[in-house]
Design goal:
378 residues; alpha/beta; 6-stranded parallel β-sheet; 12 strands; 15 helices
């Protein structure tokens, strides 16, 4: 991606995890900065079918002879042609569904700051009318054409051996969007983390993420003004940063390293996660749980399943700054209750979100995909 985010970190973590366990991994990547150097027509064609990317994958398979090709993102420069390259070589294809691109050209099921499911399970031409992708009708048309073309070719139905959804809510949504239910398995994100310092002093609220509309930055700004006594630290940059500037109780910390983020999490009372879109599985949630930090999140999509209200965090009505402020004030006024929630969050991390637990699940998925591909070939 041009702006590095959680998905890039997931790829790095999975590559490191596999190599740490003795597996041979070759990473093939394309950087989307290259889009700026290519003619628009070339980008459009590569989005639909990239012969160059397909050739690179074929050559890598011939050189390495892998058991699995694991795809995280093929948009726009790689294209779904990479699924065909791997499948024609007889290699199992596993695809992680980090967003909703396969049924929504805009990828987030979000329009005008609200959830939009008009293209779910349908031909996505409405996205062209609404200019959903980057505010461009032409770019939206290219993305919609890519989706329709590969649905007709069976790229998503026949060329991917197993899909990985990050939670049950998203799995149901992908099935609704047309992906084969029997090929979608569950595996959450993970982080490697030591436990937080025992009895560490905690102070204030924390937000970590891109400062953009889908992350609920407007809700955060309005809620902060409703609780001027609360101290809120914000880690991240983005186009909506101006909404937070000048709010007296918000401290903008800019970008921080992963280790610095973990340190701030270990010092905070709660993480604020006011997203207004269907987050697939925010890595910041796992990081917070790892640091014994309860999460105050919007009750939307998977967040309502991943956070147990009153046990590992608190939930509030999506887009409602008054409700967010109420839940935040509850957290700040009950340090013992939040400490108990933090301990429960850490136990949840240790059970579900450690590298060790994730490795076992990932290898089960690979073994299942390999067996299914061999059975198909036979």
């Amino acid at each position: 991606y041009q702006h590095r985010g959680g998905e890039d970190s997931v790829v790095d973590s999975e590559v490191a995890l596999l190599r740490d366990h003795g597996h041979q991994v070759e990473l093939i990547s394309w950087h989307n900065d290259a889009v700026d150097d290519l003619p628009a027509a070339t980008v459009a064609l590569r989005t639909i079918w990239s012969s160059d990317s397909s050739r690179q994958v074929r050559e890598a398979i011939a050189r390495m002879r892998p058991d699995v090709v694991h795809v995280h993102n093929s948009f726009p420069l790689a294209s779904p042609s990479v699924y065909w390259a791997a499948d024609r070589a007889g290699v199992a294809v596993v695809k992680t569904l980090h967003n909703f691109r396969l049924m929504c050209p805009q990828a987030m099921l979000l329009r005008d700051g609200r959830v939009c499911e008009e293209c779910v399970g349908r031909v996505p031409w409405r996205s062209v009318r609404y200019r959903c992708y980057r505010g461009s009708g032409a770019a939206s048309a290219v993305t919609a054409t890519m989706l329709v073309t590969h649905r007709l070719l069976g790229s998503y139905r026949d060329r991917v051996t197993r899909y990985i959804a990050l939670n049950e809510f998203c799995r149901r949504k992908f099935i609704e969007g047309g992906l084969p239910a029997d090929r979608i398995v569950l595996k959450p994100n993970f982080v490697a983390s030591d436990p937080p310092p025992p009895d560490a002093a905690r102070d204030g609220l924390l937000f970590v993420g891109r400062l953009s509309a889908e992350k609920g930055i407007e809700t955060l700004a309005r809620a902060a003004r409703l609780m001027p006594e609360a101290r809120i630290r914000v880690i991240g940059i983005g186009p909506d940063e101006a909404m937070l500037e000048g709010v007296e109780n918000i401290e903008l910390l800019g970008l921080k390293t992963g280790d610095e983020v973990m340190q701030w999490m270990a010092q905070s009372v709660a993480l604020l996660l006011p997203s207004v879109w269907y987050e697939n599985f925010p890595r910041t949630l796992v990081e917070a749980f790892a640091q014994g930090l309860p999460v105050i999140a919007s009750r939307i999509g998977a967040l309502g399943e991943l956070i147990e209200h009153g046990k590992t965090g608190l939930l509030f009505a999506v887009g409602d700054p008054a409700d967010l402020a109420r839940q935040a004030q509850t957290a700040l006024s009950d340090p013992q209750g939040m400490r108990r929630m933090g301990e429960a969050a850490r136990r949840t991390y240790e059970t579900h979100y450690t590298p060790e637990a994730n490795y076992v699940t990932l290898m089960q998925i690979y073994d299942e995909a390999i067996a299914a591909r061999r059975a198909f070939a036979a």
